[in-house]
Amino acid sequence: MPARGLTVPPVPPPPAPLRRIGVWLTNSPSPLYYEAARIEQAVAELAAAGFNTLYPNVWSRGTTFHRSSYAPMEPTLAMEAPQLDPICRLTQAAHRRGLQVIPWFEYGLMEPADAEVVQRNPAWVLHKRDGSSEMVLHGKPMAWLNPAHPGVRQRFLGLVGEIVRRCGLDGIQLDDHFAWPVEFGYDPFTRDLYRNETGQEPPDNHADRRWMRWRRQHLTNLLRDLRRSLPSATVISLSPGPFRSAYNLWLQDWELWALGNLIDDLVVQNYAYSLGGFAKDLNQPALLKARGWGMPVEIGILAGFGGRTPAMPLIAETVRLSFERGHGVIYFYWEGLWGLHAGPEGAAARQAAFGQLHR
Predict the structure, then answer these.
(1) 41, 102, 120, 138 — which has fewest CB within 10 A?
(2) Spatial separation of the C-alpha atoms in residues 33 and 24, rounded to whole Å
(3) Rounded to whole angstroms, what are the CA distances from 330 to 70, 229, 247?
(4) Whose CA is closest to 330, among 10, 21, 13?
(5) Percent helix, strand and coil across the chain, each rounded to 5?
(6) What's the pLDDT at 285?
(7) What angle do CA 215, 150, 244 make, to 5 degrees?
(8) Which residues 6+ apart lie within 8 Å of 281 measured at CB?
(9) What is the architecture of the domain spanning 21-358?
(10) Which among 51, 42, 49 is positioned nearest to 329, based on CA atoms?
(11) Domain coordinates in residue numbering, the chain
(12) Residue 12: what pLDDT?
């Protein structure tokens, strides 16, 4: 109880979560990562247009965009500019302008089927019930590393931790490839582990709820280990698909992960073709609940990629709807803003429009 006559100053409310306005940056297809001047110019343009968070791709197609102790360097970077260090360089340019940098580990636990780590460590690879170990994604055969295997866990934690500490990053981002595909888990290692922990054989039905829950728990354990291994101030961002498909197809329980403080930043992808479809996807139950979780929740919006670049009026409406719901926005991707995929409006007009939109 305060002494009589003394005034107790009010306790200030906690700071509101940052409403992120961000963009994914990658080399596919883009020359951004291979020239220092391009990196500096891109960050300057993004800062001027009101962006506050950058999500550069650091792990893709089984390779990194830096010298790593755990994986090979991306071939073009290794050939053209092995000393450039684009992630650290981009981070330095962003921090000078007050932007945060949260690199995106796009491939998560997925590897090209012909990757060296897959060929040298067959016991690390998940299998389907028919014994196959490949699935076709992005038009190529892919293998999935087992999140329950100690060797996979050690490698994954090392792969993430080395770049966080070396570049002084604000966080890291995982996406829908940090997952355990529901058809997988019938390899010898997983069968033995399930038998030892439950006393039963894995069921033939890959959608059996108990079998799904067991595998999901091991994926969650890896995320928990990642949380413990990183500096305490490191943001862990997750960019999943809609909750129902993330949970049932990829064993990602991102609602549990958010409520359990295993993630700090949620970016839910919403690449609907129409404004009506976009608005409908904003009403998915898990996303509505996420507004009360006390952390930044953003919507992944398509700016332009390949043959699909939405016109600025449609982008502006999707941003407005997101802001009205209290969400930030993250655009896919850099070259779709005012770069290679700027669309018929042209780069200058789009750059000015994005700046006005964010103001």
Answers:
(1) 120
(2) 13
(3) 29, 27, 22
(4) 21
(5) 40, 15, 40
(6) 85
(7) 25
(8) 242, 270, 272, 287
(9) Alpha-Beta Barrel (3.20)
(10) 51
(11) 21-358
(12) 52
DSSP codes joined into one string, 146-215:
-TTSHHHHHHHHHHHHHHHHHHT-SEEEEETTSS--TTB--SHHHHHHHHHHHSSPPPS-TT-HHHHHHH
Cα–Cα nearest to 240, from 108, 344, 80: 108
Question: What is the tally of helices (H) and strands (E) in the chain?
Answer: 14, 13
The residues facing 174 across adjacent strands are 238
By C-alpha distance, which of 88, 103, 159, 151 is closest to 124? Answer: 151
Maximum pairwise Cα distance, the chain: 78
Question: Which pLDDT does position 5 carry in this prediction?
Answer: 53
Average pLDDT per consecutive 10 residues, the chain (359 residues; last block may be shorter): 53 62 93 95 97 96 92 94 95 97 95 96 97 92 97 97 94 95 98 97 97 98 97 94 89 92 92 93 86 87 91 96 95 95 91 94
Q: Give the start-end residues of each E strand in the chain.
A: 21-25, 53-56, 59-60, 63-64, 100-101, 110-112, 135-137, 140-144, 171-175, 235-239, 265-269, 297-302, 328-332
Please tell me the distance from the alpha carbon of residue 350 to that of residue 93, in angstroms, as a whole number: 23
Is the bond preceding residue 186 a cis peptide, omega within 30 degrees?
Answer: no
**What's residue 214's pLDDT?**
98
Contact 52, 63 (CB under 8 A): no
Question: End-to-end alpha-carbon separation of the chain, Å?
Answer: 46
How far is residue 191 from each of residues 54, 184, 185, measured CA to CA in Å? 40, 11, 7
3-state secondary structure 199-227: CCCCCCCCCCHHHHHHHHHHHHHHHHHHH
Distance CA 59, CA 184 (A): 22
Tokens of residue 181, six digits? 């595909």
Q: What is the CA radius of gyration of the chain?
A: 21
> Tokens representing 157?
């934690």
Sheet holding 100-101, edge to edge: 100-101, 53-56, 21-25, 328-332, 297-302, 265-269, 235-239, 171-175
